[in-house]
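HOLO CASE FILE
Compound: adenosine-5'-triphosphate
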Amino acid sequence: MDKIVSLCKRRGIIFPSSEIYGGIGSSYDYGHYGVLLKNNVKAQWWRALLQERDDVVALDSAIIQHPRTWEASGHLAGFTDPLVDCRTCKRRYRADKLEDGQCGEKPSKRPGEGPNCDLTEARNFNLMFETTVGPVQDEGSKVFLRPETAQGIFLNFKHYLQFARKKPPFGIAQVGKSFRNEITPGNFVFRMREFEQMEMEFFVPPHEAEQWYEFWKQARYDWYLKLGIREDHLRLRAHDEDELSHYSSGTSDVEYLYPIGWQELEGIAKRGNFDLTQHAEFSKQNLEYVDTASGERYLPHVIEPAAGADRATLAFLCDAYDEDEIEGETRTVLRLHPALAPVKAAVLPLVKKDGQPQMAREILSDLRDRMQVEYDEGGAIGRRYRRQDEIGTPWSITVDHQSIEDRTVTVRDRDSLTQERIAISDLPAELERRLRAPWKSPKLSAS
Ligand code: ATP
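Model generated. Tokens follow.
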């Protein structure tokens, strides 16, 4: 993990937030390549749900919602983690994750294991961030930053029946920021207090719930595989009875083998009709679906695949990170699926003269229409290749002396390191073909 954190900082992918003020624990900013990478992750998620299907529609709901939302959803009463304090070192820990904590005294041990550790009884700590709306700060103005995007979907369910002309089975998908006052954030962007979720509520007739649960478990697992995550680093794990959330009658996690061990990447939950029932009761609105043909009416059941955009980005980074040796030097390379790579192709003139930069810029503007490309003319060509390897650019296009004579360029492949000569006029179509081709991590054949 340290190597990934350091690469992310070195290349401006992800770095600690507010650094000029000494940072603010477990808050991170995404730099240029990080924004491009996470945008690609989110775009692939949207693509799988919207473009490749016709039974899912999109939503972007507000972060601050009516406070009754969280009473109805059960978050106000139950969205808590067990918190313990140490009376000696004054640190706080999650009682159910003591094995991940570190005592504040030297020699550092697990909380509770040091000779001076003096832990309090566990008490429930609500993870929702509170704030107030408007100029008067009283009980009536108290609101919460959403701890999940899902509730915005339930609040709008009725609209979608009317405006989107959808009937179950259908899904509403949303991507956006969520906020949780985590007791022990950490492990880079794995657990933060402010993070992005990619969630979908799939509304189904009650008797179809089981079959759709099976469907979405598989579909979501396959999504990660298709985007290049190695199969031996990915698994589906069903929750034990005592792990289930208050709303869930069955949950499976897609887990990834991060450098910190197997951890949740995404949860797929059978939420029953819990949320719609609660919101119907609290809002006094009828949220039933009525089938106009048969007259049948029911509260749909819900299957929810809930993923984290930051955790997914981190998994793709971990899976892609590799080191090999070229000409006696260690090379760091991100072997990202081309669809996820922040930059698809770099255009590099071999020298800064003889018409090469002009030709490179021509190629650049031709490709720019179709994909994210980058121009770089600074420094030795080998160093420029390494820079592109470190941000995972799959193809580097070099303009050289021969290019000026016959309008061909070399295309260097990040993974195989082969250099192929291609006519400039064929480049756009060839790169688009490669971008669409099925892809498997080259780390699979190496391991
Ligand atoms: P955990 O058990 O790790 O706290 P969770 O089960 O509470 O996670 P969900 O409520 O199921 O998480 O949220 C769905 C997804 O949102 C998670 O699978 C994860 O990818 C992401 N997520 C949740 N909490 C965080 C966080 N603090 N930082 C980054 N991503 C998060």
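CASE NOTES: The two ends are 19 Å apart (CA to CA). Residues 48 and 223 are 8 Å apart (CA to CA).
CLOSED: yes
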